[in-house]
Write a structure and sequence with these properties.
By secondary structure, the protein is mainly alpha-helical. The chain has seven helices and no strands. It is globular, with a radius of gyration of 17 Å.
């Protein structure tokens, strides 16, 4: 049985991850519950890489992440990071340019993955406006 301090630590970590990202994948919940030390270390790395840096703001770092995730063909991740970029103040046009930039080093499949995520955001917005 886990002690109350560890349970509180796990809960705080989950809340912090969800607040920072805007979502919390089931795999992160599982890891926090089963290996909080690892998940805290991973979250620290995430924060170092995707929050404000010394020279690049979090929004710019997200645009870089979007292009890399598109290159890897990870459409759902592109979608989530694009939503986070928007929350951080990016405009859809900036996300589109990051995706356009990815076509030269990454090829058409990279561009298509990125654009599918952007179209998905547009569709979400249309659905949200109707409700």
């Amino acid at each position: 049985m886990r002690d109350e301090r560890k349970e509180k630590r796990i809960q705080n970590l989950k809340e912090a991850m969800k607040k920072e990202r805007g979502y919390l994948p089931a795999s992160y919940v599982y890891m926090a519950d089963h290996d909080v030390d690892f998940m805290e270390a991973y979250n620290n790395l995430y924060e170092k890489g995707l929050t404000d840096g010394k020279f690049l703001p979090a929004k710019t770092r997200e645009l870089i992440a979007i292009a890399l995730l598109a290159y890897r063909g990870l459409g759902d991740a592109v979608y989530e990071h694009a939503k986070r970029a928007l929350r951080l103040g990016a405009r859809k046009e900036e996300i589109m340019e990051a995706i356009e930039t990815s076509i030269i080093p990454g090829g058409a499949p990279t561009w298509a993955t990125g654009m599918q995520a952007l179209v998905r955001i547009e569709e979400d917005e249309k659905t949200f406006r109707k409700e």
